[in-house]
Amino acid sequence: MTLSSDLDRYLSHPLVGLDQVVIGADVLDSVHDIVAALPAHNSIAVLTDEDVYTTGSGTYLKPAVTALLETLGTVTTVALPGHVHADETTVNAATAGCAGADVIVTIGSGTLCDIGKVAAGTRPHVVVQSAASVNGFADDQSVLLINGVKRTAHSGWPSALVVDSNVLEGAPALLNRSGLGDMISMFTAPADWYLSSLVEMDRGYSAEAATMTRRHGGELLGLAPGVGTSDPESLSTLAKFVTLSGISMGVAGQTSPSSGMEHVISHLLDMANTARGTATAHHGAQVGVATVVVAILWRNMNEKLRTGSLGTVRLPEPDDAERTVREAFDWMDEAGSTSNECWSDYSKKLEHLRTVDAGAKIRDAAATWPAHAEVLSGLLGEPEAIVAALRAAGAPTRFSELENPSKEDDVIWALTNCHLMRNRFNIADLAYLTGAWTKTDVLAALAEAERIGAGL
Fold it and tell me: Per the domain annotation, does 312 fall within a domain?
């Protein structure tokens, strides 16, 4: 199956609520026909931000889309100010601004789309992508900031996506390179999801959803040079990747097909920068850099399991675990809201691991590891290949190369504590619970990343 045929096939999946995807050259005008075909479109809310978007040919995107919509009904522009975060205040403002509209049209990137999914509710929601920057356009979930912690919440499917390669060509190259970085997570996240199934935390592991985009991994790596030069055909293909990846999350009913340890690291870095009042890096670019370190950890842990040298699983006592979580996150706000939120999720994970006797399950898995390793061989990627692809695209491979780099201490903090944030099990959990993810281990993984042109 080709990437395009898989995309067409899964658009008709019974769990997918995305009705229409239009990707290619000169398809921007299709916004008019999509909205015109809706049962009601007399009142249209255009949700966007204050950024200026131009196409590769120099056309201003927002006026072009607004002009198309003004022939259909009354258009109200809801422009969210400043650097937009999907926090409660911003989501509420967007929801209020879009109240009463028959249809919502979101123009912008991933965060705006996440907000638009919430603001639209059950109303038709058409998304005009300004870049192929993340894979969160084509699913029914939104990443929201709750009590200072990034959480994934079910929202709503967009009705349609319009992705014009001329628009992508006009986007800053770093945004499309960020999309490549977000997709690079396919080389670690599905493996984390499979690992979680071994301790019954998978929430419905699906080999189909896990491999939906991963089976096209070779094509993604080969796409990197074209993404780096903003080649329109390459960007259209990247848009198909991020769309299919989003659909895989909808099919799975969770973000696990493309969100594992690497995404948690990115979320923690965003949280740290937000707490410090500093700018955050582009999500996908940050994910791409983190994926290299996670791939190294996976390789090291895989070797421990293969050779029978994995340490004993030791679950911390609840009081000790709570103390660890609070020591990790209490600095982020005086009220302790962040540590409360993280402990609320981590305590559920710890309780589950005790209930199912995770130590026994890991021992059973280790005893039959060749069978698991065979499955994982189709999910994991080599860190050297990941670095090569990011370099070929001109994307960052080191945290210090990100547009808004985090402090080195914050990177080490995020890597060390990423398993404490949410109620999911990934390779960092296994490493931590077997004594292989201390600060010393984190520094060793970063040193290994440095040897292949990545890391700090």
Answer: yes
